[in-house]
Amino acid sequence: MIQSTRLGRWLPPRLWIFVGILVVLVSAAVLAPLIAPQDPEAQNLLGRLRAPGTEVRDITYLLGSDELGRDLLSRLIYGAQVSLTVAALSVLVSGSIGTALGMIAAWSGGWTGTIIMRMVDIVLSVPAILLAIITVAILGPGFINVIAVLAFTRWPRYARVAYGQTLGLMNLPYVRLSRFMGASTTRVLLRHILPNIIGPIMVVVTLEFGLMVLFEAGLSFLGLGVQPPTPSWGAILSAGRNYVTTAWWIAVFPGLFLFLLILSVNVLGDHVRDVVEGRR
Amino acid sequence: MSRFLFRRLMQAAISILGVTALIFFLQRLAGDPVLLMVSEGASQQAIDALRANLGFDRPVLVQFTDYMSDLALLDFGQSVVQQVPVVDIIGSRLPYTIWLAGVALLLALGIGAPLGVFMAMRRDHPLSRIGMGFVLAGQSLPTFWSGVLLILVFAVTLGWLPASGARAPDSVIMPAICLSLLSMATFARVTRTAVLDELSKPYIRAARAKGLSMGQVVRRHALRNSAIPVISIAALEIANLLSGAVIVETVFAWPGLGQLTVQSIAARDFPIVQAVVLLGAFVSIFLNLAADLLYSAVDPRIRLEGSK
Prior knowledge:
The complex is a heterodimer.
Chain A: H1 6-10, H2 16-30, H3 32-35, E1 54-56, E2 59-61, H4 72-108, H5 110-125, H6 128-139, H7 143-170, H8 173-180, H9 185-221, H10 233-240, H11 249-276
Antiparallel strand pairs in A: 1-2
Helix pairs in contact in A: 2-4, 2-11, 4-5, 4-7, 4-9, 5-7, 6-7, 7-9, 8-9, 9-10, 9-11, 10-11
Chain B: H1 2-29, H2 44-54, H3 60-72, H4 86-121, H5 126-140, H6 143-157, H7 173-199, H8 202-209, H9 214-252, H10 257-266, H11 270-298, H12 300-306
Helix pairs in contact in B: 1-11, 4-5, 4-7, 4-9, 4-11, 5-7, 6-7, 6-9, 7-9, 9-10, 9-11, 10-11, 11-12
InterPro entries (chain B): BPD_transp_1_N (IPR045621), MetI-like (IPR000515), MetI-like_sf (IPR035906)
Pfam family, one (chain B): BPD_transp_1_N
Keywords (chain B): Cell membrane, Membrane, Transmembrane, Transmembrane helix, Transport
């Protein structure tokens, strides 16, 4: 029954749960100030390391509290903001830069093209996490720097796709016609090339998004990401390692949220790729 | 073949030169590299002394040629903190990382590849469905979380394995499992696709028509041909395992290169960080090259294409 509806064909029911997880996490991030039961940075010395469900002076710690008595659930809700914002912004920045450079490389060819595509090869030849680590070591940690680092390490992925796609379109009659009619390079690239390569670029976006969430958490875990007291899932998990024998929840819940977010993004990303590439 | 080989070698050489230059100029772009290496609140005198000592007061181009020629001789400079050649420090940590990554690779290949073959042969078997779930989960599992879960279950609750360090021989088990999960999922997925691809080809149907059983067909024909993509992925996965070790070693306090990197960032010992990253880049470029060459050695069709 469900299969035959339009929605069912576009998005099979087995994927609905992942859409649900994403919707919940995104709304948590957007509505954080409204739904978080506590201030994520409010400390409470009486409520340190309380187990999930404990009540201390009218405050119920649904997912427990951390070593400073901060409500873990509230920190995780605000952590969703950090994860999703960093991932979205770094995908946006690296996607725009990479797509632009890829199109320019294909369009201008010659030395410009060679230099850009060589840069792509070079950046991609360094394992991404190592490149991110050395760049953070140079720039220093922090919200903006993490985005800059992720954008810098990931733009070649988009450039490669944009380059190949643009090469394929460049000599099609409609593109040549618009050039003969006097359209500027910028106009041709933005009006005629970009709309036609955006599909494959979006595939890269969906595949990269989960990776960016993972990278942000990994950098924060190593102490190189968003700095405390801003709640980042990676940083909360890292701090929770010290209390794993007495307060397992501090390390377990942020990881669970991360896992669910990345899993949903990956599963839906795979689906988007299949749809765009016409496999179903 | 020789033309393909030459072109590939040139590409690798350019990548290596590019990566070294990239890291050199990144440091300069970000400001004064000496500031990366002194502790916070160091006196101006100390900063100037270190700058002269490291040669950062010379023109940038002189520094660059010096830096490149030092690297060509595998001289990565001195550790700022320990005042020992970086090569010695790396040499003392490298065996741990190789041991960890080696065990992880064995686990990933040893479990992932057979799982992939099984999932291709018995697509509708309940175990295959569980396997696909594992592949999906494995690709989304942050190692720093699975590591903590392993510690929580096997070290804290059950007390079977040591939670951290590398003193006991069984210390390697948990970090290796944790590190191998992602690669294991990748091997399972790639092997499954490769075997499925082979099984859909006409010669397989011919072999079946001749009267061979499914098992025989897979063993005699499909496996050998589907090994090609798996081999090339294996080379790339080694690079992933080595860089993944940064986080896994931190989780399990494993005294390898990854832990060294994180410690060196905290101690502002930049020469060590730089050396590890360069080493990682070289290994990864080399493995990519090896994968391509291996690929062309195993599959003659690629060789022909490359030499056109």
